[in-house]
Amino acid sequence: xxGFIGFTLAALTGGCTGAFFSRRLSERCEILxxxxxxxxxxxxxxxxxxxxLSEILRKxxxxxxxxxSDKLINIAESGSDIRQEWNSCVDKxxxxxxxxxxxxxxxxxxLGKSDTEGEIASLxxxxxxxxxxxxxxEEERSNKGRLYCTVGIMLGAAVGIILI
Amino acid sequence: MIESKATDxxxxxxxxxxxxxxxxxxxxxxxxxxxxxxxxAGAPIIIRSGSxxxxxxxxxxxxxxxxxxxxxxxxxxxxxxxxxxxxxITLKCGHRAGICGTAVYSxxxxxxxxxxxxxxxxxxxxHTGTADSLVGLFEGLHASHGLLIAGKPLSGKTTVLRDxxxxxxxxxxxxxxDERDEIAAVYDGVPTLDVGLMTDVFSGYQKDDGxxxxxxxxxxDYVFMDELxxxxxxxxxxxxxxxxxxxxxxxxxxxxxxxxxxxxxxFDCGAVEHIxxxxxxxxxxxxxxxxxxxxxxxxxx
Lengths: 164, 301
Description:
The complex is a heterodimer. Helices cover 83% and strands 0% of the residues of chain A. By secondary structure, chain A is mainly α. Chain A contains six helices and no strands. Chain B folds into two domains: 117 residues, Beta-Lactamase, CATH 3.30.450; 169 residues, Rossmann fold. In chain B, the strands form three sheets. Chain B has a seven-stranded mixed sheet, sandwiched between helices. A six-stranded antiparallel sheet of chain B has the order 3-2-1-6-5-4. Chain B has a two-stranded antiparallel ribbon with strand order 9-10. By secondary structure, chain B is of the alpha/beta class. The two termini of chain B are 38 Å apart. Chains A and B meet through α3 and α6 of A and α3 of B.
């Protein structure tokens, strides 16, 4: 009986670990999608409303799906350099990969620095690069998502068998 | 030179104080009398008070000036591109940061200014009571239907216009065409300076557009605007609708006024009935256009 419980627990732990890594792949896709949607909203705000960066961040803060800190909004409003806080907010999304972060870091460097056309061009360039990241993230999710779960359960079961 | 609260100075330097901390630690006397803060790449910062200059030890650099622009624009250059192309950015409380650099033309007009090398922060002040002696012109059955406030640059024309607007705004319907956001100092959609109870502020409108929309939408008794720049036909339309006009013009004498063709047209069409000359934020003379035209008949014809 004890052996059976140990086997089940080990298999479950392995399955959960696999599911966790599989979930991270899905999260990466979701966060990238959120950033892409944010850029599209931002383009519209800049083109049609002429909103300032802080106003856009404030409007998107509750619904964007990623972290926009109050500090970032305050820094944007004060006119100080936003790069450090922007990067810090990007880093809080732990499921993003280095290449995703690089695109977002670069966006933080150019946000609010040019006129409407320049701003829209920067957002468009960042969006297309993020779309490439999203494509690779989705491929990875479809290829490896189930694999992680299966491998996790199998490894857990193997450990359980060894324990028995 | 007139003194004012040091808080005007403090609000004017608010966005650049962290870039040039020395600006924040000036003597009270300098803060009270400062009119301009001139920041130029490679040169010391100068605080101008009347004819006196306070030269600071801080040398501005190009990168610091770029930081200033980002601070003025609150990290949103796109939201201020019209202002930048126009050569100035309106700050909180109506202060203005004039900018100078290399013009970028597109389609025959200035689209942007790059390599900004100089910034001039002009400190706006609301002085109540400066237009007291003009209020009488707008009282009674023969209230004036047109006033031109004239003076040389920095003489206080806008200050007097704002105070007159504030005082008349309590009794007349006024539409204020604030093309550069410096009269009412609209900031985030709210006028930060008192321009009167019944004053509707057309912020950011070009004068022609503002006049047209004011006539259509707000049925004003008077239209106020800073610096002549509207099409004469539009002003004639305004006069024909029975709406009074109050505006300012750069000129320190009647001769200078008469040299301006557009102003002469305004005299001819009856848009201006009185002229007030301003110097050092004080009204130095008020005269009627009839007497001016009689005196300068040759000029006006």
